[in-house]
Design a protein that fits this description.
The protein is an all-alpha fold. It has one domain. 62% of the residues lie in helices and 0% in strands. It has 6 helices and no strands. The radius of gyration is 16 Å and the shape is flat. The C terminus is likely disordered. This is Wall-associated serine/threonine kinase-like. InterPro entries: WAK-like. Keywords: ATP-binding, Kinase, Nucleotide-binding, Transferase.
Length: 115
């Protein structure tokens, strides 16, 4: 349910419940057990962090749709890479470190662009 006006304030909407769980470090508590595995925990955290950035109240603090699509594309490639079959956490860590560095570069190089 997207809204629950009967519950506590931080549980009245799906987005508030999600953000509250993220702040309290309870991400895995709100993700279905059929979805989470040891192999995809890092990817789930990256997707959740991206989702929380998309829910920023100030629009200028949200990532552009292009940034979101690029991040999903990179995450998909990480999970499909043959090295990920052998040691997915190591591959994910290495790739996300690279992705993070790349997004910092693209943010600084795009700072003059109009969105």
């Amino acid at each position: 349910m997207a809204f629950n006006l009967e519950g506590p304030e931080n549980e009245r909407s799906l987005s508030l419940s999600f953000l509250c769980a993220m702040e309290e470090g309870r991400l895995m508590d709100i993700i279905g057990h059929h979805i989470q595995t040891d192999e995809n925990a890092g990817v789930l955290e990256e997707v959740a962090n991206l989702a929380s950035r998309c829910l920023e109240m100030i629009g200028n603090n949200r990532p552009s749709m292009r940034d979101v699509a690029d991040k999903f594309g990179r995450l998909r490639k990480v999970m499909q890479h043959p090295w990920a079959q052998h040691d997915p956490e190591e591959m994910l860590f290495t790739s996300l470190t690279f992705i993070s560095a790349g997004s910092n570069l693209s943010t600084s190089s795009n700072s003059g662009e109009q969105h």
